[in-house]
From TrEMBL:
Name used for this protein in its record: Purine nucleoside phosphorylase
Record GO terms (molecular function): purine-nucleoside phosphorylase activity
Pathway the protein acts in: Purine metabolism; purine nucleoside salvage
Family matches, as Gene3D superfamilies: Nucleoside phosphorylase domain (3.40.50.1580)
EC category name: transferase
Polar residues composition bias: residue spans: 93-104
Record-linked PANTHER family: METHYLTHIOADENOSINE/PURINE NUCLEOSIDE PHOSPHORYLASE (PTHR11904), PURINE NUCLEOSIDE PHOSPHORYLASE (PTHR11904:SF12)
Biased composition annotated in UniProt, kind: Low complexity: 79-92
Length: 421
């Protein structure tokens, strides 16, 4: 029998810092019987007989175990990965597996089993104590992704462009492309919204090295805000200095029409009012200060550049500068909400952007925001209009060329100074 890893003593805290959670789906391939019990009993779904071919819920269900170290771990073996769908992290069980045995009768003693089980729990406890389990990524995870990207492409982008709904084709502007699917990039969340392809595209846009997010993450997809904003910090670590956030938005300002462009002057972070700010939780000083100002969120010089580029292109009639209000979604706004937001001073409304901007400013990135007005918010009780995503995507496609021209004209005018090797 191959030697079993023995758990280092320091990995055994007196108590787990928080309930230990194991996804049941992770255990469904286990070939032996697992008995778990904690001194405070079970949390979550009660199961004491997971293993073998026992049918377990195909949907991710969590079992939790409080109390340490009084778990009774009879045996853990198998060849499965634990994947936590909420964090995307995965832990291999293979290290603790019994390679040949189907049960404990292959000479493995009770003590062997106990050691192996405890080692497994020690690993899980370490994970539970790691920052990424505290509802955020660790600095090392951002770094891991940044290093992976730098190792897999020679591009060194100075500008990152986040493509809004229906605006993913902006990435096609990039020459000498190197593209990665989000699912292939370590730690990256997955795109789930139609119109957000889920690819990170590197290349040169009119001579300027860029990276394009063909698809962003939204709060309404169920992602916590530290996940929604994950790529922004990665961009910072790979040397990006300027982020251009684009979005599809509903026009609240009565002068705005479908197909108009709004250079974002400022935003209202509505989820922030309710305590949903991506910077909640322990501050990571390596990215920025605890209390970053937001009064200069949208760079004045970049706004001027965008406005002058739009005018040079003859877009003056379709051009505005205004305030974007970010909501949680996914439901579109009621008439009363639209009226309320408009009175608050918002010119356009959407379900994204503000979180990315807060995180970008926290780590010192310059931000330019551009909204494409894809629909007029319904403000009138006699209106038959109903906001819908298809209309949003259609408007995006119809104004694609305009947005492309704007970015192509704008990009070479942006001064950048990339110091990353
Ligand atoms: O903000 P982007 O991602 O452009 O998308 C906007 O369009 C979608 C609604 O149609 C929402 O996701 C809203 O936020």
């Amino acid at each position: 029998m191959p030697p079993r890893p023995s758990p280092p003593a320091q990995l055994f805290p007196h108590r787990l810092p928080r309930p230990l959670l194991l996804p049941v789906t992770a255990l469904k391939h286990l070939r032996e019987q697992v008995f778990l019990a904690g001194d405070e009993g079970w949390t979550g779904e009660e199961r004491t007989d997971i293993g073998g071919d026992a049918s377990v819920s195909p949907t991710p269900t969590y079992i939790g175990c409080r109390g340490w170290p009084r778990h009774r771990v009879r045996c853990i073996a198998g060849d499965a990965d634990t994947t936590d769908p909420s964090s995307g992290t995965s832990t291999s069980l293979r290290d603790w597996s019994s390679p040949s045995s189907e049960n404990t009768s292959d000479g493995e003693t009770e003590a062997d089993v106990e050691t192996r089980g405890l080692a497994f729990f020690a690993e899980m406890a370490t994970q539970a104590a790691s920052p990424s389990k505290e509802g955020r990524y660790s600095y090392e995870e951002y770094k891991e992704t940044a290093d992976w990207l730098l190792a897999n492409t020679e591009h060194r982008p100075m500008v990152a462009i986040v493509c809004g709904s229906g605006l993913g084709n902006l990435a096609d502007l990039l020459k000498e492309q190197v593209a990665f699917k989000y699912e292939d990039i370590p730690n990256f969340p997955k795109s789930t919204v139609p119109g957000h392809a889920g690819r990170l595209v590197f290349g040169n846009l009119n001579g300027k090295p860029c990276v394009c997010m063909q698809g962003r993450f939204h709060m309404y997809e169920g992602y916590p805000l530290w996940k929604v904003t994950f790529p922004i910090r990665v961009f910072h670590l790979i040397g990006v200095q300027t982020v251009i956030v684009t979005n599809a938005a509903g026009g609240l300002n009565e002068d705005y029409r479908v197909g108009h462009i709004m250079v974002i002057k400022d935003h209202i972070n509505f989820p922030g009012f309710a305590g949903q700010n991506p910077l909640m939780g322990p501050n990571e000083d390596r990215f920025g200060p605890r209390f970053p100002p937001m009064s200069d969120a949208y760079d004045r010089d970049l706004r001027k550049l965008a406005l002058s580029a739009s005018r040079d292109l003859g877009f003056a009639a379709e051009l505005h500068e205004g305030v974007y209000c970010g909501l949680g979604g996914p439901s579109f706004e009621t008439i009363a909400e639209c009226r309320f937001l408009n009175r608050l001073g918002a010119d356009a409304v959407g379900m994204s952007t503000v979180h990315e901007v807060v995180v970008a400013r926290h780590c010192g990135l310059r931000v330019l925001g551009i909204s494409l007005i894809t629909n007029q918010a319904v403000m009138d009780y006699n209106s038959e209009a109903r906001a819908n995503h298809e209309e949003v995507l259609k408007a995006g496609r119809e104004s694609e060329k305009m947005m492309e021209k704007l970015l192509t004209t704008l990009l070479p005018r942006i001064e950048t100074n990339n110091n990353v090797n």
